[in-house]
Amino acid sequence: MIVILNPNAGGGTAQATWCRIEPRVREIVGEFELATVDRPEWVHRLVADRLEQGETDFVAAGGDGAVNLVATCLLESAPVEDLGRIRLGAIGLGSSNDFHKPQSDHGRIDQVPYRLDFDAASLVDVCHVDYTDQDGRRHHRPWLINASIGATAEANGFFNRPDPLLRFLKRHATGLAILYAAVVTLLRRPSRKLVFSLDGHASQQARVANLGVVKNPHFTGSLRYDSPHCPDDGQFYVHMLANVTRPRLLLALARLSRGRFSGQRGARSWRATRLVVRAETPFALEGDGEVVFTSDASFSVIPRQLKVAA
Q: Rounded to a whole number, what is the largest CA-CA distance in the chain?
């Protein structure tokens, strides 16, 4: 087993948190290799090297971005025929840790969530998004938890590149930091016109404030949609909030903090296996907390592609 630690997760607090819980982790899983890596290209090399050496158990210790990065490296580096024996675990050292939700008290060390039961690992769906960047290059990225376009994506971008106040809040008051990033984004960013198509059906158009594409309904701290968590059903949920005012957006934020989305003005939801989105101008696209900019995105899902620890 190898634990890949991102020391910069959690607003820079991950290293200290890891030092506090490492002895307990060793009690739970026994001996393991620890690699502290803070650059994506180094993680890619490390994972490829350990796969070549025959390693099968990988643990992402960090936030949701760390989980996504290690999963991406496994999917890109492991032969397809070997994916059934490779297992991904995680230790939540990030700000939101949506990968670990819904959480149970049996999977925490000093309030730090973990998924380290490799004997109970199961295959889960992996979603993918294809998009064109602003230089015209085509990209393909997997994601496990959720993706978004609009307010959530913009807020994640702000959270990843914080102003001084947000940087302080990330280190000392994570919940307030997430709320601050969300409110500032909602007040700044207008809705934008998107053209979208679900499962190959006729295109539709809407002025969208936020578009969530989710496997896990939990996102951005305490916010959550009211769709179920179905990690292996071969589909994702699409939640759209369109044609609403800024006050209505703030009300939607308050409702999402209580897990309520359906039934409010401007809210629409679908279940799908494919979603294509286009716009005349670039929009923020987020997947598992990582943000890029594009004017087109195509979402799909591969059922039961990766084995994940319980």
A: 56
Verdict on whether the full-model pTM lies above 0.85 = yes
Nearest to 138 by CA among 129, 127, 147: 129
Q: Residues 130, 214, 142, 56: what is their CA dihedral angle, to the nearest 10 degrees? A: -170
CB 309 within 8 A of CB 87: yes
User: Are the C-beta atoms of 239 and 269 separated by less than 8 Å?
Assistant: yes
Q: Quick check: 212 and 245 in contact, CB under 8 A?
A: no
For residue 116, give the amino acid letter. L
Among the listed residues 10, 61, 66, 4, the one whose alpha carbon sits nearest the alpha carbon of residue 36: 4
Quick count: other Cβ atoms within 10 Å of Cβ 136? 6
The whole-angstrom separation of Cα 295 and Cα 23 is: 47
- Cα distances (angstroms) measured from residue 85 to each of 74, 78, 82: 11, 10, 6
Residue that the structure tokens 């090399």 belong to: 45
Q: For the chain, 310 residues long, give each residue's pLDDT as a single digit of tens.
A: 999 999 999 989 999 999 999 999 999 999 999 999 989 999 999 999 999 999 999 999 999 999 999 999 999 999 988 999 999 999 999 989 999 998 765 699 999 999 999 999 999 999 999 999 989 999 999 999 999 999 889 888 888 888 898 889 888 888 788 888 877 887 776 688 999 999 999 999 999 999 999 999 999 888 999 999 999 999 999 999 999 888 888 899 899 999 999 999 999 999 999 999 999 999 999 999 899 999 999 999 999 999 999 9
**Distances from the Cα of 172 to the Cα of 64, 169, 222, angstroms:** 19, 5, 17
Q: How far apart are CA 153 and CA 53, in angstroms?
A: 37
DSSP states along 109-125: ETTEEEE--GGG-EEEE
